[in-house]
Amino acid sequence: MSYWMKLFTGWSQSLLDSLFTFSPKLLAAILIAILGLYLAKLARRYTFRLLLKVTKDEILSRFLARVLYAGVVVLTLITALSNLGVQTASIIAVLGTAGLAIALSLKDSLSNLASGIMLIVFRHFTKGDTVELNGTLGNVEEISLFHTKLTTPDNRSVILPNASIAQAKIINFTSNPTRRLEWTFSVSYESDIRRAKEVILLALQSESRLLEEPAPLVGVGSLGASGVDFIVRAWVKKEEFFAVQIAVNEAIKLALDEAAIEIPYNKLDVNLISKGTL
C-alpha cells in the first residue's frame, strides 16, 4: 500500500511541478493570441479606411486589408506556439506539404483565386461599372477572390468564375465619362436627302441631353436595296446612354413622319405571267 501511495505522491508532485513550469508559458501564449487577434482586427479596420480614402476603390482596399489581417493572424499563431516551446519549423514544413497537396486538389479554385487577385489589382473594372463579360451584360455588384457578381438590366444576378473572366474579352461601358450613340435611318430613294438630313439634325437639336462637343454627325452611310441609309452619331454622358437612345429613336421617327419623308421597308413585287403569253 505504501508503494502505491509513494507512486501517486510522486506522480502528483511531478504534475504540479510541470503545471507550475508550463503555466506561465501557456498564459503568455494565450495573451499573445488574444492581443495578436485584436491587433489583426484593428489593423484590418484602419488599413481599409486609409486605403479607401487614398484609392477610392472599396474592393481593392478590402482585399489588401484582408491580406494584412491574415498575415498578422499567422504571425500571431507562430509566435504563440514558439512561446510554448513548439518547434514551428517542423509545423511550417508540414503546412507547406499539406498546402501543396491541397493546391493540387483545388487547382480550379486556386485558378479562380489567382484570377480574382489579378482583377482586383489591375482594376479592369470596379463595383458599379457596366460591363460585358463572357457575353453577359450587367452592372458589377461584387468582385470577390473566387467569383464576380453581375446584375443584368432585367435584374437577374449572374455569378461568373474569375478564371473565365481573366481569359475572356472584357468590355467596360462606363470606364470613360461619355459614350457615343449611333443610329441608322433609311429614307426612300424618292425623298430629298438634303431635306431628310435637315429634319434629322433638327430632331437631334431638340434633345438637350446630347453633348455639343463632339458635334452630332448625320450623313449618308450607304445606298441600300430599299432606300438611302443615314448614319447618325452623337455623344452623351454615360449614365444617360440608354434613355437618350430611346428618346432620339422616337424623336427622329416622329420628325420624319411630320415632314412626310417615307421610311422604306422591304417590298416584294410578284409578276404573274399567263400561259397564253408564253
From TrEMBL:
Q: Where is the Mechanosensitive ion channel MscS C-terminal domain?
A: 182-263
Main localization is: membrane
Listed A to Z, the keywords are: Cell membrane, Membrane, Transmembrane, Transmembrane helix
- List, for all copies, the residue spans of the domain called Mechanosensitive ion channel transmembrane helices 2/3: 67-104
Q: What is this protein called?
A: Uncharacterized protein
Where does it sit, as one GO cellular component term? plasma membrane
The Mechanosensitive ion channel MscS domain, residue ranges: 108-174
SUPFAM superfamilies xrefs = Mechanosensitive channel protein MscS (YggB), C-terminal domain (SSF82689), Mechanosensitive channel protein MscS (YggB), transmembrane region (SSF82861), Sm-like ribonucleoproteins (SSF50182)
- How does the record classify its membrane topology? Multi-pass membrane protein
InterPro entries according to UniProt: LSM_dom_sf, MS_channel_1st, MS_channel_C, MSC_TM_helix, MscS_archaea/bacteria_type, MscS_beta-dom_sf, MscS_channel_2nd, MscS_channel_C_sf
Q: Which residues cross the membrane?
A: 20-42, 63-82, 88-106
Q: Listed GO molecular functions?
A: mechanosensitive monoatomic ion channel activity
Family the entry assigns: Belongs to the MscS (TC 1.A.23) family.
Q: Which cellular compartments is it found in?
A: Cell membrane
What Pfam families does the entry give?
Answer: MS_channel_1st, MS_channel_1st_1, MS_channel_2nd, MS_channel_3rd
